[in-house]
From TrEMBL:
Residues 1-25 are annotated as: Disordered. Residues 23-83 form the HTH tetR-type domain. The keyword Lyase does not apply. This is TetR/AcrR family transcriptional regulator. Keywords: DNA-binding, Transcription, Transcription regulation. GO terms for molecular function: DNA binding. It comes from the Bacteria.
Length: 209
């Protein structure tokens, strides 16, 4: 690992396959894009900024991505997949009550965002500077979270009794996203885990209503 935190390929001869080398390069470029946008903003980030952080050539970059936006979208999707994985793991234990699984999923989600302020800024704020395709991707990702959480809450008969359970879940996820984005915009990403308790209290009150 380099001093800047990026994992480089071994120098000289190695036994990595072409696919492994390509995967390593791609991973470093996605991380480079995330870090550069978190530091400079999407508009001021250039392909050269990514190359510098990822330690790859311009030719290598264009072997993987058509342009800066394509790299950003891939980085966003990779981050979303990681967080969805965390949430899915929390929801997988069907032996835990609904609210227990919701708490685990929410804590995991907030913990992931709180761990890296630059990445949180990149994917919650700078995504809107990356054009309509990025905004549409964020909408699809958020829609996926709505489906995940609705699939959990629908197990509770109190939630099924809501006039429109899916709409209620959309409002819940939208509200969480808005609060989280506000914290990140104010530079308060480290405090995100503190949102867990009041959010859970609100959901419990909604179900008990």
């Amino acid at each position: 690992m380099d001093s800047d935190g990026y994992t480089s390929l071994p120098r000289g001869r190695h036994h990595l396959t072409r696919e492994q080398v390509s995967a390593s390069q791609r991973e470093r470029m996605l991380q480079g894009m995330t870090d550069a946008v978190g530091e400079k903003g999407y508009a001021r980030t250039s392909v050269a900024d990514v190359l510098k952080r990822a330690h790859v050539s311009r030719e290598t970059f264009y072997e993987h991505f058509t342009d800066k936006q394509a790299c950003f979208l891939a980085a966003y999707q990779a981050a979303a997949d990681r967080i969805v994985g965390v949430v899915n793991d929390a929801l997988a234990d069907t032996g835990v009550p609904v609210m227990g699984r919701l708490e685990a999923a929410l804590r995991g989600y907030l913990r992931e965002l709180a761990a890296d302020g630059g990445a949180a800024r990149t994917f919650l704020l700078e995504v809107y500077a990356a054009g309509p395709a990025a905004a549409a991707l964020r909408f699809r990702v958020q829609r996926g979270f709505v489906e995940l959480i609705a699939g959990l809450l629908i197990e509770d008969e109190r939630f099924r009794a809501q006039p429109d359970p899916e709409f209620a879940c959309g409002m819940l996820i939208g509200g969480i996203a808005s609060m989280v984005t506000g914290k990140v915009a104010l530079g308060e990403h480290a405090t995100l885990p503190k949102l867990c308790a009041p959010i859970l209290a609100h959901v419990s009150a909604l179900l008990d209503h």
